[in-house]
Amino acid sequence: MTANEALPLAVIASSLLPGLAIFALPERSVALRSALNLFGALAKLALVATLLAGVAAGEDYAFRYAVLPGIDLAFKADALALLFVTLSAVLWLFTTLYAIGYLENAPHRSRFFGFFSLCVTATMGIAMAANLFTFFIFYELLTLATFPLVVHRGTPQAMRGGTIYLAYTLLGGTLLLAGIVWLNALAGHAEFAHGGYLAAGDAPNWQMQVIFLLLIAGVGVKAAIVPLHGWLPQAMVAPAPVSALLHAVAVVKAGAFGIVRIVYEVYGIEFAQSLDLLAPLAVFAAVTIVWGSFRALFQDDLKKRLAFSTVSQVSYIVLGVALFGPLGTVGGLVHLVHQGIMKITLFFCAGNFAETLGIHKVSEMDGAGRRMPLTTLAFSIGALGMMGAPVTAGAVSKAWLADGAEAAGMDWAIWVLWTSSLLNAAYFLPILWRAWLRPAPAAWPEERIVARGRRETAWLLLLPPLVTAIMTLAAGMFAESPGSPLEWAKLIAAREYRVAH
Amino acid sequence: MTDPLPWLILLPLLWATGAFLLGPARGARLALAGTAVQLWLAFALAAKVSSAGTALHHPVGGWGAPLGIDLAADGLAALLLILTQFVALPLFLYARAYFAGKSPAFWPLAGFLLAGMNALFLSADLFNLYVTLELVGLAAVGLVAMGGGAQQLAAALRYLFATLVGSGLYLLGVALIYGVFGTVSITALTPLVTADAPPAVWFAAGLMLAGLMAKTALFPFHYWLPPAHGGAPAPVSALLSALVVKASFYLILRLWLHPFAPLTQVAAWLPALLGGAAILWGSWQAIRAERLKELVAWSTVAQLGYLFLIFPLLGADRLALHAGGMQVVAHGLAKAAMFAAVGVLIQVTGRDAVADVAGVAARLPVTLFAFGLAGITLMGLPPSGGFLAKWMLIDAALLRGRWDMVVVILAGGLLAAVYVFRVLRQAFLLPSSGERRRVERRPVATLEWTAFALAAASVLVGLRGMEILRLLEAGT
After folding, report:
1. Chain A CB within 8 Å of residue B392 CB
2. Residue B372's domain spans which residues?
3. Which A-chain residues 81-120 have CB contacts (< 8 A) with chain B?
4. Sign of the CA dihedral A220, A226, A227, A233?
5. What is the structure's pLDDT at B1?
6. Quick check: is A346 in a domain?
């Protein structure tokens, strides 16, 4: 095995092996567990950095293992894979730190961190899968590994959320499987390729269209496209680090990423366009964007409001993919990263409000900014980013998406973006107003961590959102610098379209 | 020991006799040692078959067919031999800890069961196959009756009835075949049976296959299985559900592929139809089951259904045959694991009810993992062997335009998810304070880890798919 084959495997192993080891640890070995977690996360980052440097220089990293005749378990660390791998690896580190702080003294931490590592492992597999078969394996592994996290608290509400989550995702997985095997039977077993591997003669058009529908519905469940989004607001019963995982690091991202792979590297953007598949996809994305934002307006539960916001924001990625043209592609891809860092900031902060002061509802947020200025600051940056305010990452995404819509001649999509921005402002600004400008109540709902000097809450809870908030700003301000998510998205788009055009 | 074939039959007979004479404590040790050697022999045989690429023959006592008894092993037989010993070995470890020397009948019966199964896989003529079928059936009934309770005896009697009717029908068919052709050797029969065979041969084939389907508990002959498998002690349930039903299925497949191939084409839809019904009905009953073991037993009824879907899909591309072989292996491992895990759950909570596993996730993580991993295989989720089997089955159905079957296969997976997660969900639930106070037995580590090992094997076998398929190609 050469180094170029071993590296993708090492990226997967760097969370799989610590995860398996953590399962075996007794509950009380906190230090060893944390050390294992952090070692895995840091090792993964180092490996990812090596990969990034190599791929930028044009290296190929691939590994394959025959499972069935003609069907391989295959990994490929290409530019698109690394976009997702890097996002997840970075956010995994911060989520791990956060979770160590969040779950201090909570029961069943070995189980929690074990499954947490498995989730990240599955995400790495999804990102680096070189064919639909491999993609499916890790896509289902992700479903299975997140279930114990969603039901972690063991309460009846958690069970309800978990059951709904499973019902949606397993059904989605079944549709995906049907689509993949069908496609396999028609077009043979092929690997993802720039510009897609399907061509007009492979099968009757209607079959191609139905398969596309099956595949997109399958991954659309995790991407929470309306009407397949019902699980996401229910799953917010999970602990805050799990919400971060669902909304930013792994699950909805896996769905959105799947759509990117299917459109660009299975069908190919041109072929998908010639089958009239992109316009309906764009319409679904647009409906999801508006509907998610609209529903968010009426949620008093903070996490639920954020969950509906995710429904809306993830479909920006889908919209970007469905816009025919490189500008939209760049906008969609870069939003994959931007949405991740912004949303994880918001969920970290929501977790801090809940853990420190017992605030779960928007109506309880009055004066929270004075008691927890740094958390509220981070929250504000995330929220402004979601609205697309200047100098944040969100502004970059929206600008590219709007340009993409214009270039594709889909002016209505610009109106969708504007409407959504207005709705975003309408559901985020009241929170900021309450937190910063309203007086604090006489007593917080349930104050669990008392402020000491400058320390408004535990350090491990405070640092991660601050870092991701800074990243939100940096991704906006230094968008044109080398190494930024935007530059990487441009690199991917250039490689996708170099073949297509 | 140059030739593994006869030893695979003799060894279990030897240790069964030994266990009968020496008592359960030493008997268990003998059984474990013997089964370990058998496992090694089975692997050696598979390696030989695989490298030879054709079936191996062994004339017993130097007298081969047509006068003497011929033993034969092709890839399919070798695969089932490995599976049988591979599942039996951890289950015997499990049984030793489970019975803790209290069940003297288990070891001799288990030995005869294994001897019968191994002989069945290696037999090359229809009459010897009948003898092995009876040996397996009687040993299995004995194991079910071993518990001695009124319910277990009733289940054993029902089981005895079903197995006797099944092998009776089979024997009748064999007699008819012998009357027409004057031989019972499978090799000799294969060129003789053609589509224009006399009606007696058609009738005989129908009787034999119907008898075997009854023994395999194919819907609607499944009625005996849930009480028998659900009522026996956990290690016995595991042996029966994982292995014994596969023996008669193996025989159906063997007859279908070879002597009866010209006859069966016309009726290939029938087993598939019944198999589809078994998947839906078995899963539905598992979803409704109140008791854990009942749930797992009904799941067997459903999972056996997949095996019968392959018959109309058998063809030159061999996808369906591969899917069947993979499903036999995956289900064998997973079902043994699941019964073993459920055995621990029942032992620790003291009750056999789905509702009573609340909170078990925290106390029995290893057992619950075993249950979950086995469940992954049963649901057909990747990377398990069950997933590969399902993948190939869907592929085969699509290639022949059988959309109805694709829908049944996919629906079966979802239904399996419902009954598997019914238990997992309950296990993650925090127990109520009353339940928490209940005194519980501590779990025995051997029981937990053997269940886990079997479950892990059922998932990881998916990564050895190529070897399994290569073995199936050898002379089958």
Report:
1. yes
2. 269-476
3. 107-108, 111
4. positive
5. 46
6. yes
